[in-house]
Amino acid sequence: MSVGAGVDVDAKAGQQFLQRCLEFLERAVTPFHAVATMVERLRAAGFVALDESQSWQLEPGNKYYVCRNDSSIIAFVYGRENPLEAGLRMVGAHTDSPCLKLKPEPDLHQQGYAQLGVEVYGGVLLKPWFDRDLSLAGRVSFSRPNGELASRLVDFARPVAVVPSLAIHLDRGVNDGRKINPQTEMAPLLGLADEKLDIRHLLKQQLQAQYPDEPVAEVLDFEISCYDCQPPALVGLKQDFIASARLDNLLSCFIGMESLLQADGRHSALLVCNDHEEVGSASACGAQGPMLESFLQRLWPDVQARSQLLHHSVMISADNAHGIHPNYAAKHDGNHGPLLNQGPVIKVNANQRYATNSETSALFKLLASELGVAAQTFVTRADMGCGSTIGPITAAEIGVRTLDVGVPTFAMHSIRELAGSADAYILTQILNGFFARAKV
Question: Model-level pTM?
Fold first, then answer.
């Protein structure tokens, strides 16, 4: 593994980490599938499922997880040290990514072709979605023959759709910055309309193929997304980069999970991965919703004890950062241009679009220096707007010290993004140190 940050990386361990990362990214084609994949890893490591509809009796020394909406998850290591004195070491990320989602009645038939009506979810970079091999995946709700309601995850797992470009001969100005109309130009093509397309019939067939023992009477509703079938890969002459869909922010989910699985159980450690960050986080399972606060309330119902706990705690919000693009360097502040494979990035914004302050930044810099890494810093140009993360939202919701960090990335919000292959591993090692640290 090529590393420019000066840290000594175990090559074998780094390659094994990257292989697990690529496998996770390939399976996590929607937030639902991301959570399901994480649950598999957590259960295999001894984490016990919690049911929000039941009462809880959690014991120090044990490990737990709880899901909401099948698309958000909290995983928790209940440390042997008293959390009211030692605090919680928390990492936050989000499971959703910008994409095209099917409308409730998506069936289209135009000029003899079968197509799908889609909505744009989040801030999608639309141009790269043209001419890609697309598949469909998500959650389907249906009735059984006995009248029971049920839901299952589906994944067509093969190319079933494409959004073809218009030939340049018919649009000579296409390279001159023409705007894309998402209503009229982004409908994926499924095939010839030899007969009327019925998406519910297709979903029922897919359910029966994936779950042959599950009786399906009628598909009632669905949350289905399009995704790129091209698998994740290590690219570059020396495999310097990870190229994949949904790096923002599944890469952080994976990093957080890997570190939590390494936690030794002395101190309490928590990973929260929320859905709906790309559209504002205002949902029952989003960072602006009550999921994390409710979890903490159930563990420490006493207000004074919980306030004491949070005073000693820190949240690291992990979400990809903008690496300085060699073709567009002017889009960055001259003193704050993070480089890929030079280590993770602390994200700062004076207007609280990021939650970092000097104290939380200092903690991360100390953790990085103990590993031999010089943390980078990102600040947007003063004449440009700034994105945000779950960091400020979580800090405001539960009142915990927070900082925003991330792996530097190119092509954020494209159908295929690019990150440094060393940076993800380095951030994992820093979070390992964070979870193990005696005092935060």
Answer: 0.95
